[in-house]
Design goal:
Helix content: 25-40%
Oligomer: single chain
CATH class of the largest domain: Alpha Beta
Strand content: 15-25%
Largest sheet: 13 strands, mixed
Shape: globular
CATH topology of the largest domain: Peroxisomal Thiolase, Chain A, domain 1
Structural class: alpha/beta
Number of domains: 2
Length: 341
């Protein structure tokens, strides 16, 4: 059902049945290390190149969530998936063996929110009994495409974030589950003219603020109506910008905001500067840390807002600005067979 100007309220409360997360060694050494399903020490994931490594990561995570949910791939009607690479090659080669109809998505680091929202929409409308949503990133494949070859060994400014090697996947259905998806606020592209690709938190923060504000307005809510408002990978700098921006609009989220990019790494011991980033950042944090807290009732309603910087190597080299986007998904505890609305 349409809700307000930009949002969707799911009447049948599609469920996240299970979640799976597979990460690299550095992510496994971080604060969330014990919560991931698998930690792979081989950065190549048995492949011959970095892109192949990310594809192998996607396939392994998809198979893991199916195993945990007790589903076969033939039961999944549609797969919604994406990555950071040109033409979504990690997804194309990573999911081909699953033989599931695929909706390839690109929302940069906001892709997991987009994927869950669309996968939930198909379940809510009765167009699918089961769907999968997943997103991945790999430090080396992203560095190769967007920044510098690893061999170059360039120095990184403190505003830079570290691309997460990881993939998160969720299976969605109509009954049971560990969390209900009660709403979605798709984001608009917001471009404030920011051009520093080493400070993507600043580029994405205005888009995150726009989506959060729209969610509040469309659902007639305030920050206190959510136990947590969780952004994707703004990092330490983008978080400050977001909080200041919303405070100037009359909303103080500082006491109930967390950012996946800040949570996934230890800033002091892991040398990741502003935090983590990449499609896999919010995806694995959601699957390993956020959803279990919703399942136990520690958090009863969460606004999950992955954030994305919509640049490419071409646009950057042409001197263009970095547009941002953020997609909001409302996740709730399942109570008495229903979500809390």
């Amino acid at each position: 059902m349409q809700q307000g100007k930009q949002s969707i309220r799911f009447e049948n409360l599609p469920r996240i049945l299970e979640a799976a997360s597979v990460v690299g060694e550095k992510e496994g050494q971080g604060p969330l290390g014990e919560k991931f399903d698998e930690i792979e020490k081989d950065p190549m994931f048995g492949a011959e190149d970095w892109e192949g490594a990310e594809s192998a990561l996607q396939k392994r995570t998809a198979e893991k969530v199916l195993e945990k949910a007790g589903l076969t791939r033939t039961q999944i009607r549609y797969l919604f998936a994406g990555d950071l690479l040109g033409q979504l090659i990690a997804t194309s080669f990573g999911t081909v063996d699953l033989e599931i109809p695929v909706m390839g998505l690109y929302g940069a680091c906001s892709t997991m929110g987009e994927a869950i929202g669309l996968a939930a929409s198909f379940v809510d409308a009765g167009n699918a009994d089961y769907t999968l949503a997943l997103a991945s990133s790999h430090f080396a494949s992203a560095e190769k495409q967007f920044r510098f070859p690893l061999e170059y060994g360039n120095q990184r400014p403190y505003s830079a974030t570290w691309t997460v090697t990881g993939c998160g996947a969720v299976a969605l259905g109509q009954k049971g589950g560990i969390a209900a998806v009660s709403g979605m606020t798709p984001g608009k592209i917001v471009d404030m003219g920011h051009k520093d690709s080493m400070n993507m938190g600043a580029a994405m923060a205005p888009a995150a603020a726009d989506t959060i504000l729209r969610n509040f307005q469309d659902f007639d809510r305030r920050p206190e109506d959510y136990d947590q408002i969780i952004t994707g990978d703004l990092g330490t700098i983008g978080r400050e910008i977001l909080i200041d921006f919303l405070r100037n609009k009359g909303y103080d989220i500082s006491g109930r905001h967390m950012d996946c990019g800040i949570e996934i790494f230890d800033a002091e011991s892991q040398d990741t500067h502003a935090g983590g980033s990449g499609c896999g950042c919010s995806a694995v944090t959601l699957c390993a840390d956020i959803l279990p807290r919703i399942q136990t009732g520690e958090w009863q309603r969460v606004l999950f807002v992955p954030t994305g910087a919509l640049l490419s190597s071409t646009s950057f080299n042409e001197g263009k600005s970095i547009p941002g986007i953020a997609h909001g998904v409302v996740l709730e505890t399942v109570l008495d067979g229903r979500g809390r609305q």
